[in-house]
Amino acid sequence: MLKIGLTGGMGSGKSIVAQYFHALGYPVYDTDWHAKYLMQHDNSLHEQLIATFGIAVFVDNKLNKKHLASLVFNSPEKLAILNQLVHPCVKADFLRWVGSQSSPMMFLESAILFESNFSSIVDHTIVVTAPEPLRMARVMLRDGMSKEAINERLKYQWAENDKIMMADYVIINDDRHSIIDQCNGILSKLTES
């Protein structure tokens, strides 16, 4: 079973690439979705979050994502604490998920694949990249975020070039190169190895 890590900065298009691989029949584990699910449903993690950040991180027993984001994206220390609580749970959940799959290849989608050291639990890595102005425009359109808010979040992610240097494969999503051709080329190389 090949485990492939898939990453890219905000607006790079990594989710579109993940959707393409999923459409081809490959299982995809979305770390962002699973992290939110675990924060709400894993009792131990749920209790640790309340003990660390206060009861307001949950409203009517649902994760208050806006409140939690307002706490951690203004404080590198609090973000580090949150990551120390959440990342081990996500890694353990991913490895359980891998054990339930029968596909010869599966994908781990994570915006912070290298920053979180999730890259240590996969066999190969793919970075999806796009020019920064295009990424900014995509996120502003998709999420309605200001440039300042986007830049605040990007401060906690590695620079694109650092991710590219660490990756085994790179997909350029600049609206000029075919994503499908690049994905298929990578799949051919992975299935040959």
From TrEMBL:
It comes from the Bacteria. Its EC number is 2.7.1.24. It is an enzyme of class 2 (transferase). Pathway: Cofactor biosynthesis; coenzyme A biosynthesis; CoA from (R)-pantothenate: step 5/5. Keywords: ATP-binding, Coenzyme A biosynthesis, Cytoplasm, Kinase, Nucleotide-binding, Transferase. One of its GO terms (biological process) is coenzyme A biosynthetic process. GO terms for cellular component: cytoplasm. Pfam families: CoaE. Belongs to the CoaE family. NCBIfam families: dephospho-CoA kinase. This is Dephospho-CoA kinase.
